[in-house]
């Protein structure tokens, strides 16, 4: 490879490396803010989910409330895939799309219809490309989601459930663990009887043990005024909103962490490529110098 071409390649890779380093620093700064929002929300989200679970345990007539009615047969399943508006984040978006489509294929084998919704342009585009266009598309806010965005999504999903368009609502998102690790999480939002919140949450083990000892494992330890059914009718929409908002925040932090890691790896790979090209360039230069010396020596010998 000519020396000039190697120089051009080194310069080009160095420019790319500057971009990837800048993107890494930007993602790191945004990740810190996203982590702060998650830390601030988690106690409130946990409290809402715990209140909803306890009220559901105390209620006796859940089917009397439309939003709490459990279908005898699940024929239509609504799936919300939480992705990002931008790429360059490694496998962040791909793993959500694959998990959602894989789950949809399994449900379709059981002769259930899957109705997709997606937040983030990557999810909307991928589903459309796979000829599974989403019924609901929510884009333009994944860098910094607001509660109003979660409320809009929740309103559409709740309306679809109450109107009988779907018999179950599930959500797929990347749960944030660390900048290097994100876990694909699948949760059931509706109906409440199948929702993930009815499982014991972290930190509730002591409460569960106390209820067992007192002989009312599935009975709430509080008295409700008004009745639990009425409270649930008001609380369930809030629970769905806060669950979606938490998923959006977790996904945002996961996106920034994944992008930061991807850009760091890209910068390191660019450095290795620069070293490789520089070594080739030096070897080429040495070969050219050696060739020139041999030509000078050969010319000198021919004159003697």
Q: For the CA atoms, what is the radius of gyration?
A: 28 Å
What proportion of the residues is helical, as a percent range?
Answer: 55-70%
Question: If strands are numbered along the chain, what order do they take across the biggest sheet?
Answer: 3-2-1-4-5
Quaternary organisation: single chain
Strand content: 5-15%
Domains, number:
2
Q: Quickly name the level 1 CATH class of the largest domain.
A: Alpha Beta
Number of helices: 6
Distance from N terminus to C terminus (CA atoms, Å) equals 36 Å
Stretches where pLDDT falls below 50 for ≥5 residues?
A: 200-208
Helix- and strand-based class? alpha/beta
Backbone shape: elongated
Stated plainly, the CATH topology of the largest domain is called Pyruvate Kinase, Chain: A, domain 1
Mean pLDDT metric: 84
Largest sheet: 5 strands, mixed
- The sequence of SSEs as H and E is HEHEHEHEEHH
Number of strands: 5
Describe the fold and architecture.
The model is unreliable at 200-208 (pLDDT under 50). Helix 1 runs antiparallel to helix 6 and helix 4 (147-162) packs across helix 6. This protein has 6 helices and 5 strands. It folds into 2 domains: 3-22 and 261-297, Helix Hairpins; 30-257, Pyruvate Kinase, Chain: A, domain 1 (3-Layer(aba) Sandwich), CATH 3.40.1380.10. With 304 residues, the protein is of the alpha/beta class. The protein has a 5-stranded mixed sheet with strand order 3-2-1-4-5, sandwiched between helices. Strand 2, helix 3 and strand 3 form a beta-alpha-beta unit.
């Amino acid at each position: 490879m000519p020396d000039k071409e190697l120089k051009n390649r080194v310069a080009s890779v160095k420019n790319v490396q500057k971009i990837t380093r800048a993107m890494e620093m930007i993602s790191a700064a945004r990740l810190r803010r996203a982590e702060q929002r998650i830390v601030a929300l988690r106690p409130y989200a946990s409290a809402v989910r715990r209140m909803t679970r306890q009220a559901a345990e105390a209620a006796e007539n859940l089917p009397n409330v439309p939003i709490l009615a459990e279908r005898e047969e699940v024929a239509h399943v609504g799936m919300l895939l939480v992705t990002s508006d931008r790429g360059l984040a490694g496998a962040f978006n791909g793993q959500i799309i694959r998990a959602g489509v894989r789950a949809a294929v399994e449900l379709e084998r059981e002769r259930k219809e899957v109705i997709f919704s997606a937040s983030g342009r990557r999810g909307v585009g991928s589903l459309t490309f796979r000829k599974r266009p989403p019924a609901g598309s929510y884009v333009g806010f994944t860098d910094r989601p607001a509660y109003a965005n979660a409320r809009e999504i929740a309103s559409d999903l709740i309306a679809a459930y109450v109107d009988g368009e779907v018999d179950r609502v599930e959500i797929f998102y990347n749960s944030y663990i660390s900048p290097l690790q994100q876990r694909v999480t699948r949760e059931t939002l509706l109906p409440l009887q199948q929702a993930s919140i009815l499982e014991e949450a972290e930190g509730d083990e002591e409460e569960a043990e106390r209820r067992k000892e007192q002989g009312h494992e599935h009975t709430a330890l509080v008295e409700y005024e008004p009745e639990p059914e009425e409270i649930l009718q008001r609380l369930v929409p809030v629970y769905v909103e806060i669950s979606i908002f938490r998923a959006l925040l977790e996904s945002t932090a996961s996106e920034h962490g994944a992008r930061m890691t991807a850009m760091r790896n890209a910068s390191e790979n660019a450095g290795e490529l620069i070293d490789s090209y520089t070594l080739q360039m030096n070897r080429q230069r040495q070969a050219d110098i050696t060739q020139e010396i041999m030509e000078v020596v050969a010319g000198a010998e021919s004159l003697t």
